Amino acid sequence: MSGEQNEKLTELLKLLKLNNGDLSKLTQEQRKEMKDYKFWKTQPVTRLDESVQKEGPIDRKKTPDEISDQPLPLLGDFEWCTVDVTDQKQLEDVFLLLNENYVEDRDATFRFKYTREFFNWSLRSPGWKQDWHVGVRVGSTKKLVAFISAIPVNLRVRDNTVRSVEINFLCVHKQLRGKRLTPVMIKEITRRVNRCDIWYALYTSGTILPSPVSVCRYTHRPLNWSKLHDVGFTHMPSHATRNQMIAKYTLPKATSTEGLRPMEEKDLDEVRLLFEKYQSRFDLVQNFDEAEFKHWFLGNDEKTASNPSSKVIYSYVVENQNGQISDFFSFYSLPFTILNNSVHKELGIGYLFYYASDADLEYADRFSPEATAALKERLCGLMNDACILARDAKMDVFNALTSQDNALFLEPLKFGPGDGFLNFYLFNYRAFPITGGIKDDKSYDTVKRSNVGVVML
Ligand SMILES: CC(C)(COP(=O)(O)OP(=O)(O)OC[C@H]1O[C@@H](n2cnc3c(N)ncnc32)[C@H](O)[C@@H]1OP(=O)(O)O)[C@@H](O)C(=O)NCCC(=O)NCCS
């Protein structure tokens, strides 16, 4: 991929999850010292200048009784609200807030197309609590101006599994930025989670905070180059023609892995077993119980069956000739609405989610040349098929991080590196650094790969 094309494609990235994108900004933030983090320096997180000596909880164990049952005070005309995402009107308030404020898009050309199905999937996983869908409204108008959410997870950090939450969808209205509402939001959701006897959290951000436990890079693989070009995401590199670019990214008509088929309910137990074996190699992992596994990989919205365009999660298995499942992969859909374009109204975006394969399970050392070659070959075949299936599901670009074993297939399958990075953080838990699949020069680390095995939405 040429420098120019790469640059343009990575603009897409800025819209995808992040407010980061900009390397110069990263450098500036990296220069920010611990004392400058007026809020974070008061929180139980690893300090920027700290070298971790021992993994484990930071604050002493408290009990929920020690935590106030009163919400934090809010200044001015603001009030807390608990958002009921099963209520269409309240759900629309969240869409509106996130659509208009979650991503930076100066031209206001693209907006996330959040749907009820997406929130049903991402915010209502087993054990979800309405109390953890926290909003702030203007008292007089009731307009929703900020949001933060948590879902319960069992998180394994190397050998220790801790009951935690994943924090997501933090958003403050653009007109209220820089007013220190974020620390209040974080403290309030912490209070609500602590009241339920949960003391740890996993969260990600494009910005540097004290202190990342891992850093991964975003990558993307064009599936429909001409459309990406037509809507202004990518420009023609000077040395190439349109046809050459289309040819470069054209995928085969059909998938090639024998035995590949959509995952079904009957597969759940077998796939979960394979998945657990595969995930055991990583240092930062979300453990799924039976109900969670079903939720995350088959979805919880029956209606999507009758309306395929609202489908959020796509899961596939490979069943070999003996009827055993040797591989599994999944990706999810979160499209953009395209404004002001007479031809294209929507941009389909697929995100690689979890996968597992038995290709290298027989080897004692996952990093041995034989194990690496076996897994690389298998993953290249599987992920190429994932791209084909994503394309067939009307997705125009397929995104992946450098987490998991992704570094093995990214380059061969033409996933271009983005300029966005995703930092992983643990709240109230110290951990040694975890490899994120990138080298010091930020290129893919095909040797060490990544020990991040968790995928955050
Ligand atoms: C992220 C966002 C909520 C921050 O709001 P803001 O108005 O700039 O920040 P505030 O004045 O309210 O608070 C500043 C504090 O929040 C911290 N902060 C900023 N972004 C943060 C994040 N994503 N996660 C945790 N803390 C964050 C800052 O470091 C600062 O604390 P410090 O003094 O210890 O450094 C806002 O920019 C936003 O809604 N962005 C778009 C959505 C988004 O990117 N969400 C985060 C996804 S990871």
Automatic annotation (TrEMBL):
PROSITE patterns per record: NMT_1, NMT_2
GO MF annotation, one: glycylpeptide N-tetradecanoyltransferase activity
Group of enzyme by EC: transferase
InterPro entries: Acyl_CoA_acyltransferase (IPR016181), NMT (IPR000903), NMT_C (IPR022677), NMT_CS (IPR022678), NMT_N (IPR022676)
Recorded superkingdom: Eukaryota
Occurrences of domain Glycylpeptide N-tetradecanoyltransferase N-terminal (ranges): 57-216
Quaternary data: Monomer.
Name of the protein: Glycylpeptide N-tetradecanoyltransferase
Organism: Torulaspora globosa
Source lineage: Eukaryota, Fungi, Dikarya, Ascomycota, Saccharomycotina
